[in-house]
Design a protein that fits this description.
single chain; alpha+beta; 2 domains; eight-stranded antiparallel sheet; seven-stranded mixed sheet; 7 helices; flat
Length: about 375
């Protein structure tokens, strides 16, 4: 439930709205080429990534971790085994040390958070009345929330400094069998677990912290009552990545590993938890590439549709002199913007893929033509409809 809310009402005339709409046109003109660039870049990224994965799948050599074979020098290798270390990773500020691959400190503060929700009602003559509700809630955040920008600042002030920064410490010497793992590989490993703290850990704290902190569950707590936290209370939690089994795709360079360069220009370097076969790791990478590609395609399409929508927005604003007419024009311009954006997006993707997948390019051009024809027919039916 929200801690408190504040509501204000504002009005805007038709002339003010029209001015904002004209400013939006300028932003829309910038947004459209930006979306085209994003789409074109995304297709190039997808092509290069797909090509690198294909090349890597054909070149990879699965090896055992119990020996470093000179014959595999410079090759893309796949290996599985337990990543381990004899090092102790430490957090000197809080007096903690663990035999682990990584020790991570997370610092959170109990703070105010502002959220706002607006509802706009059109008025006869083209003006609008907007009711904005500001909701203030308290929650834990590992980032400082600047309360200076809140609508109601005096009643919702957050501290500007935390007791410490979040950070991670990685073991300096990590091995997997006979291979030495660089920090870049270790940073890609997942599976960190919460580090349980006890009152005994308080004795290792520096004197200035020992006087301020208490041990609550899996955290050091700064504040009066953990059961009812107050604004400004802080907690410090720790996670550790213990030795575990991992599978790695990387280039063998001496006794260590690094990114494998491919002809497409994309480097291959991948880590997964557990004992995972090479072909499965490549399949996972292909799936991720497909998801990212389609996600960015959708983003590019929506950005372009937004750009065209902003360019057409003055038409709907003028029509809002009669609210019901403005709604109809607004719906029409939104549909038109989406159709035009879809056509251009298909064409951009087709052009980007033409050099490597001409059949896909042809299919996308056909799809663009189909969208254009459907849009034209839809517009024709509306014009032919009786008044």
């Amino acid at each position: 439930m929200p801690d408190d809310t504040f509501t204000e009402t504002s009005s805007q005339s038709i002339f003010g709205r029209l001015g904002d709409a004209i400013k939006g046109v300028l932003f829309g003109i910038i947004l459209i080429p930006a979306a085209i660039i994003l789409l074109f870049w995304n297709e190039g990224r997808a092509v290069k990534t797909a090509a690198s994965l294909k090349e890597g799948a054909a070149a990879v050599v699965s090896v055992g971790a119990d020996a470093v074979l000179p014959a595999n020098e410079g090759k893309l290798i796949h290996l599985s085994g337990e990543a381990t270390t004899e090092d102790m990773v430490a957090d000197a500020m809080f007096g903690l040390s663990q035999n682990a691959l990584r020790l991570t400190r997370t610092v959170e503060m109990f703070q105010w958070k502002e959220e706002q929700k607006s509802e706009t009602r059109k008025k006869l003559g083209g003006g609008t009345e907007t009711q904005t509700t500001y909701t203030y809630t308290k929650h834990w955040s590992d980032e400082l929330i600047a309360s200076s920008g809140f609508k109601k600042t005096e009643e919702h002030q957050n501290p500007s400094v935390m007791i410490a920064k979040s950070m991670a410490t990685t073991a300096g010497h990590v091995t997997l069998g006979k291979f030495n793992l660089p920090t870049e590989i270790v940073s890609m490993m997942r599976g960190d677990q919460a580090l349980a703290l006890t009152d005994a850990d308080l004795t290792n704290l520096p004197a200035e912290l020992k006087a301020k902190l208490k041990c609550v569950g899996d955290a050091f707590y700064l504040g009066a009552d953990p059961a009812t936290p107050a604004i400004g209370d802080q907690r410090v939690k720790f996670t550790v990545l213990k030795p575990a089994t991992f599978s790695i795709l990387a280039r063998q360079t001496g006794q260590t590993l690094d990114a494998y360069p491919t002809k497409s220009g994309r480097a291959l370097e991948r880590v997964e938890s557990g004992s995972v076969p090479a072909d499965t790791m490549f399949q996972h990478a292909k799936t991720e590439n497909t998801m990212v590609t389609w996600g960015l395609r959708l983003l590019g399409l929506l950005l372009m549709a937004l750009g065209f929508g902003l360019i057409l927005r003055p038409l709907a604003t003028v029509a809002d002199v009669l609210p019901f007419l403005g709604d109809l024009v607004g719906m029409g311009t939104s549909i038109a913007a989406l159709i035009v954006a879809a056509i251009i997006s298909f064409v951009v993707i087709a052009v980007a893929w033409f050099a490597v997948r001409p059949m896909l390019s042809v299919a996308l051009v056909i799809a663009a033509i189909a969208v254009f024809v459907m849009g034209k027919r839809l517009a024709g039916k509306k014009q032919a409809a009786p008044a």
